[in-house]
Each structure stands twice: as C-alpha cells, then as structure tokens.
Amino acid sequence: MLLKFTVVNYKSFKNTVTFSLTPAPKQKGLDYSVFQTKINKKIYKGLSTAIIYGPNAAGKTNLIGAMDAFKSIVLRGNLRNSVEKSTPNTAANSLELIPNNIDVSPSPVSFSIEFIVDALLVKYAFSADLGTFLDVGYSRKLLSESLHINETLIFDRRKTIDFGNLDVISDYLVNEFSQNASSAITLAKNNLNPEELFLMNGFKTMFSSKLTGIISDWLDNKFMVIYRADSLQLIRKFSDPKNTSIYVEKTLNEAAQYFGINSNALGYVATGDNNESKLCSLFKDATRSVAVPAELFESYGTLRFVNMFPLVINALLNGGTLIVDEFDASLHPMALMNIINIFHNDEINVRHAQLVFNTHNPIFLNSNLYRRDEINFVERDEDTHCSSHYTLADFGTSGTNGVRKNEDYMKNYFINRYGAINDIDFTPIFEKILLSGSEV
After folding, report:
1. Whether pTM exceeds 0.85
2. Is residue 313 part of a domain?
C-alpha cells in the first residue's frame, strides 16, 4: 500500500512535490475509501484511490513518469543508463533527461517513497547528482541514501554510511550476521560505489537479501506504474504454446461482453514456435471458427479495456497500487465509475489495492465518488514553466477559498476556483487566417 511519494527536480517539477495517499486531517465522508493497517500497535491509514487533474503540458504525466523513473533506477540498482527499454518513459532509461531544463548548473534529483508491505512500513529515499539537462557524459553520483523500517533508521548514506538499529530487522538479516556485523559494516563503509544504490548492492549481499527482496518485489510487481497507457500492449506469454492454438480467458471475456465487443469472443492466438501470442477476435458458426487480429475488428476503446482490465484484476488480487497515465482514455465513464467503486468496495477490495490515474474528464469531480484529499491538481507556472501539485483538501473548509463537501466541484473547477485549468480561445488564430486568406 503506497502512502507517499516525493520527488525533487524531475523535469517540470523543480521544487519538492509530495503525492500522498495518506488521508488528510478533518476529511469527512467516503470512509470506505480509507484503509487501515496496524503495525506495532500503531494504525496507518491509506487512500484506495486518487485522481489527478490539470491542463495539457501541466506536468500530470511527469508526476507519473517520476514514479516510473524511480522504480526503474531502484530495480537496476545504479545511476547508469539502461540499454534495455523496459518502459516507454525515456527518462527512466536515459537519466540525462530527468533534471529540470532551466538549470545552468547541476541541482540534486531526489526521490522518496513510503509504503506498507508484509506488515512492514518502508521508507526509502535517495538523492543524486545527475548533472544538468542533456549532459550525457556527466559523472553521476549518489549524494544520499536512507532506509527506515517501521520508522526506525536502518542505514543513512552520505559521504560514508552509518547504521541505525539493525535489531528491528533481525528476522531478515543474513545467517550468522551477528557474529560478522562489524566486518560487514566495515566492508560496507569502504566499498561504496558512487553510482550504485547501497540498498540493491552491498545491503542486499552483506546484510539482508530477504528484506531487499521484499522491497524490490513490491516495486516490481505491486507498484504498477503504467506510463503512456495509450501505447500499452499486453503480450501474453505461455510456457508451452501449441501452434495455431487459441487461448480464451473466461474472466476477461465475461468483462468484455459487458463492455462491448463485436465478435463472439476474444482470445490470444499463438501461431509460431515462440511464446508470444496475439489478441484476436474470434468468430464461430456451425461450420468453422475464424480468428481475426483484434485491432482490425474491435474498437480502440475495447482494445484499451482488454489491455487494462487484467491489470485491475492483478491489483485487486495482489493488493497492488495501479498508477496509470490516461487510464480513462477511450473508456466510457460508466465503466470507469464502476471500476472506481470496486476499489472503494471493502467487501471486494480486501487486499487494499489502490487506483490512481490522471484525466481531463470532469465527471469524476464528484464528492460522492472522491474525497477532497483524493482529488489532485497539477498546474504549470507560465513564467518559470515549473509545475506544482496540490489537492482539493489543501484549500481547507472555511474562509473565502474553503471547499465544502456539498459543493459542486465540477462547476467550481470550470470557473477556475481551484486553478489547474487554462482559458483557451483559438478564435484569434482563425480570425487571422480568414482575414489574410492564407492557408494553414
């Protein structure tokens, strides 16, 4: 369960930005949208959903991209560029794209995340000098790195590294660590690589591969950050596909029937010797069965739904945090509302799955659907071109700018009560074209 993500100096977010899924104080209503987890007699709360609004080019995708880049850097364990393009987010692979582009001298890039997994409260952070924007040949280095478990410091890395109370993770330490603790600490202090994350290297090999495994598994499998969902293609792989075999998933087809498909069913067709399969529309009558590539027959909205729905199932079954750029693109609002309500349903969402997405659709600005602390905004300063982030809960409930639960959020957004909206008028452009008689 994600509680908090903080980033500094990622693209348009030059200053500190904290995206929180921790309930804000004094928020009433929609209590079913709040999870509770008890760790060492202390109760931690998390939100099940959040939505992000803002005009085009404000930085909504950059916020999700920052999460994706952080995840990619941690999982590969270093500040070097990645040859393997595992994400469409280029900045996650080419780190020279991360720093804000207005800086003429290097400023630190910082990430921090706080989440709960296996009854552990994990807070991990690092800060790095990546140079300036597009400085490909820069000698990158870690400036700081820290790990807290259950609010207790495990290690803090600066020029050297200091260790906190390792008794907190005694059940996760490598065998016979107590007998070799001083040697491991000495080795750690003397073998820090400025380009490598200690968590994924020295800590993993000398202190706790088990704890590192829990953290990396959460990041890899439960922190489901989908950057540019419009280009998402889920390719199903099977361990032993048969030539010209068709695999039909019952659950996905049941959902697709509700959503709307133009064929009898959908299936993944394996036609070669490799393990890849292709989504197809299936047609069957009394004499024959035919499979046609789905993109030639189904609507784009149906394809988007079929690609995304397995991720929703995955999140709900495994207690994952699903964060999607433009999740609602080409999907009917009623289908989206139903999915949101499923995440809010305590009887279904028993593993504390979370859903976060950005959108331009104002229909979700509804106090019966989202709490004020679940409604996020991103806007960009036209002078500095830097982005800022805030929630509806930040306005408070009293005073001239206060926001009360029974207000019309959608109406107030369009009259610019909350910001994060541009007044766009293309009329002068067309008047100029018509007056001059020139072509576009």
Report:
1. yes
2. no
